[in-house]
Amino acid sequence: MLKLSMAGSEAILVDAASGAFDQAIQQRIWAFAKKMRGIDGIEQVVPGVNNVLVVFDSLHVSGEAVEALIRKEWAGAGLETPSAKVVDVPVHYGGALGEDLASVAQESGLSVAEVIARHSGADYSVAAVGAMPGFVYLTGLDPALAVRRRNTPRLSVPKGAVVIGGGHAGIMPCTAPSGWHILGMTDIDLFSLERADPLLLHPGDVVRFHPVEG
Amino acid sequence: MQRNSQDGALEILASSTLNSIQDQGRRHSLTLGVSVGGAMDRFALSAGNALIGNDLSLAGIEVVFFPFRLKFHADTVFALTGADTGANLDGSPIPAWWAVPARAGQVLSLGAPRVGARAYIAVTGGIDVPVVLGSRATDQKGGFGGIGGRGLQRGDRLPLGAPTLGSITGNPKAFPQAGLGAAIQWPEVRADAHTTVRVLPAAEWDRFAPEVQEQFLSVPWQVSADANRVGYRLSGPELVALCQDSLMSHGIVPGTIQVPSSGQPIVQLADANTCGGYPKIATVIEADQRLLAQTRVGGQVRFVLATRAQAQAALRAQHDDLLALSRALGTVTA
Fold it and tell me: Would you indicate the residue range of the signal peptide (chain A) (predicted)?
């Protein structure tokens, strides 16, 4: 069941979630986003996790017209399978650079070695890009590692921090506040204006974490 | 277009890094995770540009930390809009919402605002820093735009662009010496009064019981010290939701009012993250976000429910006001 709600007078949040994260819904959202982009008056289509934000220009198209368009395009949207690339991410787990590794192990009832094995043993899919420049919401986290976010967010989590939170995995693309748990550090650059395409990862891409020493 | 930058025509004499180069922001980079950014009070910056005949998209300086002083190293024309800072040019007072010529060597000083919180300085040709992702706006989180992605500091020299087609003056002598002010009655924001802003219900509005919704709309909310370009944390009664189910991360827009489990609302503003996960009770309408931008820490805000049609009409009215100003000044003939 599609739920449409206003996000101010120039955007509509389209929530397609039905309970837990559903990969098929996400693929339909990607297909929907592709169809919506380029339609007159539609300014931006921003996929979230089983939801999508549609931003429009209210001087040129009415909210009612956009709502009708959303329902029509959603009904006709298939399942998009993006041409995914696989990106291998080396991670220095634990120590001073992964200060929450021990607490995550404790909360999940696993040993530190098991947390590392489970975190680096999964194939992750980029569900959405957002929050910060280049940040990715990764699905595929082992449910045993789906611990609650920190009660008090850190005011500064460094660029390159390999993090988990709210059932997702992620990588910090810049130094910023975050309530997610830090498991380790990587030196890959998720966002760079030096590249023609600033994004390293796009929706649908596959990420694998690999423990490295030292 | 021919570029005729006057390198370093403005020299910053006194500033804090909270002051920054801003324009209308990045409206097409949300899918990169890049905030909209831009002037917190876009209307004020646009009006400043309109007063001196600049294209409304040009960059100016947003000043939120005072005192602020800059020295002109070239003859030009500038406009001051937004907060009334009791500004002066070499000691001569400059009213708010006013444009005057400046000569090389003159110093512009802005003091603590008497009205409002954020002042905007627009200069003929605009501040000509490189365009990044379609905008010159400083994004301090991303570390790009403006001058190396940071705020302004003493000693910075800012280049000006060439006057655009509609500029009243490539020649400051053609500009009235006494200056030129906005002919329209601009809405004022007094920091000591209640600011009322209009909101639309957002996705989780129904997670709050009618009496909590009523409370949200009836009490004055105080802007806490935790208030900046990212957002304002508000203090008031605890807003308790009927349901605490967590939400999946979703795109959010500036103006979104989130209610985390503490029950104290946070209004997300220009530099907010592009995605969030907290319940959203309402969204401040686009046209009224400038009123929040002009409300200081400790100021009080009331929310009143509007309709989407009213919100869009208010936005259109601002658009028309700017056009009327440009027409009145003869900078737009269409």
Answer: none
- Interchain CB distance below 8 Å, A133 and B276: no
What is the rounded CA–CA span in Å between residue A181 and residue B81?
44
- Phi, psi dihedrals of residue B184, rounded to the nearest 5°: -85, 145
Q: How many domains does chain A contain in total?
A: 2
Which residues make Cβ contacts (< 8 Å) with residue A209, sequence separation at least 6?
Answer: A89, A91, A119, A120, A124, A162, A169, A186
Kindly state whether residue B235 falls inside one of the protein's structural domains: yes
pLDDT, tens digit (0-9, with 9 covering 90-100), for A53-67: 999 999 899 999 999
pLDDT (0 to 100) of residue B304: 97
* B117 and B241 both lie in a single domain: no
Q: In terms of CA atoms, which chain A residue is nearest residue B200?
A: A8
List pLDDT tens digits, range B204-251: 999 999 999 999 999 999 999 999 999 999 999 999 999 888 789 999
State whether residue B327 is helix, strand or coil.
helix
- Tell me if A157 sits within 8 A of A178, measured CB to CB: yes
Neighbours of B200 (CB within 10 A): 23
Best of A9, A12, A149 to mutate (most B CBs within 10 Å, chain B): A9
Both B110 and B206 in one domain: the answer is no
